[in-house]
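Internal QA ticket QA-208
Title: Verify multi-chain structure generation after dependency bump
Assignee: T.L.

Test input:
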Amino acid sequence: MDEIFLSGNRRRLTLKRGEERVVANRHPWIFAGAIGAESGPADAAIGDLVDGDGRRLASGFYSAHSDIRLRALTFGDEELTVELIASRLAASIARRRSLLSKETNAIRLVNAEGDELSGLVVDLYNDVAVVEVSNAGVERIRPAVMDVLRRELHPRLIYLNNDLPARRLEQLSTEPEAIGEGTPATTIVENGLRFEVDPAAGQKTGFFLDQRENRQLARTLASGKRVLNLFSYTGAFGVYAAAGGATSVENVDGSHIAIEQARRNHDLNMSSNIALFSIADAFAHVRKLDAEKERFGLIVCDPPAFAKRRAEVDRAARGYKDINLYAMRLLEPRAVLLTFSCSGHISLDLFQKVIFAAAVDAGRRISILRRLTAAPDHPVSIYCPEGEYLKGFLLEVRE
Ligand code: SAH
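Actual output:
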């Protein structure tokens, strides 16, 4: 491991003249366009960025294939060593200890740039740690990551899905790997509620941990209400709403696998039969519910990222407007809507404009009660605002 960090094994990248701002802003992504000459081994895990006089400006994970040539972890004189990486990892875990309890045993342990570990995400699901490595340099120091996870958490299994698109770009293996005992499927507790999570079959790492606090909010709002959970995935918001005393909960998702899991998650927590599970396209389903004059006291709208690339922002905005317009039409007087966008390319400002346009066209009087974001185990680096993708509003419709 240590030899990866020896100076002879590091790539040396010279910052182009005029690109000094890149380093002054401490943004961890150093793009190829800012780099002039490169020397040293092309398969290096670690790179040093230097100025024209050879002075070191930053060090980090090197990638020969990605446009993000260097993922900077340290700036200036700070030495990048395997011990530094291990200590950042241990600190990330330590910061979250207080979030772990008998009531909640699933959290994001490492949130890439937000934990000063660009290229690495680790989620803990009860006894299973799910690791996502998106960069060739991080892949090379994986053994050190595993050591810390084992020492700090003693997970039954460490699972690597390896299905991130970035891995293909980095020419890394996309075969899943499991180190430990048993299968990656497990049952978590979150705020006292239980959910089956299968990191091998699910979306992302298996469960949307970023919504934990917003789900808890939904629980406090649900009492006595008819609830509609759009884009329900495995039904997490629906379970919280039912636990909060909803009179009925309809979960809607296009994936029958997600809906089957939603059904099992509901049954894990409740014996009541207030829940409905609809395999449907949400855009068509809201139109059908509107035509049938169905109305709800609480609607959750948490779609997938409609804009995965900047070029898709306009089309995505139309999608968000459409679904929110219909969601607003379905609200009873004084009902509330929890609405989200997890597209990094849609800013909070743009999302609010979209909500405004939906409200105008729906002809409803809407107020914002709260702005919502990801739970605190998803910290965002002030130097890398791209990490802040989840935004939402708690809206109320007036009579
Ligand atoms: N709210 C969920 C996460 C939603 S993820 C939670 O808290 O766990 C987005 C979900 O939207 C996925 O399950 C996906 O299957 C579903 N989906 C995507 N497009 C859809 C569409 N047009 N209609 C219905 N569901 C859709």
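Spot checks passed. DSSP finds eleven helices and 20 strands in the chain.
Status: verified.
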